[in-house]
Amino acid sequence: MINARFDVNLDVNNIGARHDRAKGRAQFELDQQILKDSNNFIPKDTGNLERSGVMHTNPGSGFVEWQTPYARRLYYNPQYNFSKDSNPMAQGLWYEAAKAINGQAWAALAKRTYGRYFGG
After folding, report:
1. Is the distance from CB of 27 to CB of 62 less than 8 angstroms?
2. Distance of alpha carbon 57 from alpha carbon 10, whole angstroms
3. pLDDT for 17-71, tens place per residue?
C-alpha cells in the first residue's frame, strides 16, 4: 500500500492579484490588436480618421473608438463608394470586417496573454 501526504498552501490574495494583472494585460493587447486590424479597413483620405482611433482609444479599457465628426457617418454607411487609392480594403463597418477575419485570432491572443500569468 502506498501512502502519500500533501500539504497545499493556497494564497488566495495572490491568485486574485495575478488574475487582475492577467486580465488587464490581455485586454490591453486585445484592444491594441483590434485597433490595428480594424484600421486596415478604414477609409483614408488625410489619415485623421485612423489617427483618431489611436488618440481616443485607451488600450486596456475594452473600448476602441474612432472620433471625428464624420466617423459615425462613414462607419454606418458601407454603401458609400470609398476611394481605394490610399487603402484598397477601405469600407464602412471596418470593425466588423476585421472581426470577421481576425475574431478567432483575437480570442486566441487574449487566451494566450492571460495564460502567460498562470503558466499556460
Report:
1. yes
2. 37
3. 888 899 999 999 999 999 999 999 999 999 999 999 999 999 999 999 999 999 9
Closest CA to 68 of 88, 34, 44: 44
Query: pTM score, two decimals?
Result: 0.85
- Nearest partner of 78 among 95, 99, 65, judged by Cα: 95
Alpha helix positions (H), 10-93: 12-39, 48-56, 71-75
With b for 16 or more beta-carbon neighbours within 10 A and e for fewer, the 28-41 pattern comes to: bbbbbbbbebbbbb
Would you call 85 helix, strand, or coil by DSSP?
coil
Tell the residue number behind the cell numbers 500569468, with chain if given. 117
